[in-house]
Specification:
- With 434 residues, this protein is of the alpha+beta class.
- The protein contains 13 helices and 16 strands.
- Strands 8, 9, 10, 11, 12, 14, 15 and 16 form an eight-stranded mixed sheet that branches.
């Protein structure tokens, strides 16, 4: 270890990702903000350098220890890249000045791609907002206050931004089993390595909320139900002898329940779904099942018991003394048996994105993308901004049947959907929704 560089332990969630990454897959997500004018690369480089110095949680490189991976302070400058057709590719630190994130630009858009060991979507969005705020200050000679997730570049870093909130808040006397049945996987013909098909839908927030109200559920619960309905329809069309559960993994921001200001990971997951082996389901039945499951599972007590189980496993004496190469093998096996195989897809909702008033007139849009799954063929990510919902499907297979069924359902129920894609053929509504 470099004795002059400060080092940090990975948080509880972060420990998993470097152990299960492969040459073809790692857990990467992407956030972007679109501006009113084209991005100036030189100013973006300056803004990134300022933001990285202010944000130790992102100014890190990952190192291999005897027992665990660990983070070390990174003294390099971040590289600014032009955007690419296929987002969320593996981030190779040795080719990226050691960093675990990439900043990209294209026309009016600034995009941030993050290896999940570094931070969850909430921490990533705070960093991207800070970079964007610094960029706008440099370009327009304005002052943007530190609020709405924008950090004060002139203030010293807050120690709480670097805390492992899982360890801080987990009550180890209350734990729960993580056992779940395997879920149905859509599968399909895989895309070539490095390719990821992206379909982004822009939809009016009010129209979606009105649809959710019809079924007496929240916006997230409604869209999770539509996702389940789409995959359930695919499984039914296969006329299988035995039907597997259809479940969607939904990340939960634990900052809703605890006063943490960490920029690192602090999310857990719940997996609402249905079991078609018990019989046929109507869409209304699915919404009820999802609604009550999420209301039952998403509370401080149930989530803390899940968090305690995760932290407790890490603190097991036998695990702590296990050499890293054995831990990597063990974590890979655990993920294979209890990771993505337990759900059919993911829907992550960052919620409404807010900016300081001084930034708003320079921003037109924002978006959120999840990278390819190791097992699941599709994943969805969403946020809302300026009375619109931006929902993006990422897909690692050729067939777009999940997305077709998902958006066709919404359109038939009166929701206007504007489609964009990195595949020109899929950008035409009549092709995607035929």
């Amino acid at each position: 270890m470099n004795e002059t560089a400060k080092w940090y332990r990975l948080d509880n969630a972060a420990k998993l990702y470097p152990s299960i990454k492969t040459s073809r897959w790692s857990s990467v997500y992407r956030l972007s903000i679109s501006l009113t004018e084209p991005v100036d690369k030189n100013l973006l480089e300056q803004a990134a350098a300022i933001a990285v110095k202010r944000t130790p949680a992102f100014n890190l490189r990952i190192k291999r220890g005897l027992f665990w991976f660990y983070f070390e302070q990174n003294g390099n400058e971040p590289i600014i890249y032009e955007d690419v057709l296929y987002p969320c590719a593996n981030i190779q630190p040795r080719l990226n000045n050691g960093f675990l994130f990439k900043l990209r630009y294209y026309r009016n858009r600034i995009a941030l791609e993050v290896f999940h060991s570094l931070a969850d979507g909430s921490g990533g969005m705070s960093f991207l907002k800070t970079v964007t705020a610094q960029y706008l200050e440099l370009k327009y000679n304005i002052k943007i206050p530190a609020c709405c997730g924008v950090l004060d570049a002139n203030a010293p870093p807050d120690a709480e931004e670097m805390e492992d909130a899982y360890k801080k808040y987990a009550n180890l006397s209350r734990r729960r089993s993580r056992k779940e049945d395997a879920a149905f996987q859509c599968g399909g013909e895989a895309l070539p390595a490095g390719c990821l098909n992206i379909i982004t839908a822009h939809m009016p927030l009010e129209a979606l909320i009105n649809q959710a109200k019809k079924y007496k559920c929240s916006l997230t619960e409604y869209l999770v139900s539509v996702y389940i309905w789409a995959i359930y329809g695919i499984q039914c069309s296969m006329h299988r002898r035995q039907y597997k559960p259809v479940k969607i993994s939904v990340p939960v921001n634990m900052r809703r329940f605890y006063p943490s200001r960490t920029l690192r990971n602090f999310s857990l997951f719940v997996n609402p779904g249905i079991d078609p082996g018990l019989g046929e389901y109507t869409f209304e039945e699915i919404t009820r099942q999802v609604h009550y499951f999420m209301r039952y599972e998403i509370n401080a007590k149930a989530l803390n018991a899940q968090m305690a189980a995760n932290v407790g496993s890490e603190r097991n004496p036998a695990v702590r003394i296990m050499p890293l190469f054995i831990k990597k093998f063990a974590l890979g096996m655990v993920y294979k048996m209890a990771g993505e195989s337990r759900f059919s897809g993911t829907l992550s909702n960052l919620g409404e994105i807010e900016f300081p008033e001084e930034m708003k007139k320079y921003i037109t849009d924002a978006a959120f993308i999840l990278g390819r799954g190791r097992v699941n063929s599709t994943a969805a990510a969403m946020l809302s901004y300026n009375k619109n919902v931006v929902l993006t499907f990422s897909r690692s297979v050729q067939n777009a049947e999940v997305e077709r069924r998902f958006f066709t359902f919404l359109i038939k129920n009166g929701v206007q959907v504007k489609i964009e894609s990195n595949n020109p053929e899929e950008e035409q509504d009549n092709v995607l929704l035929r």
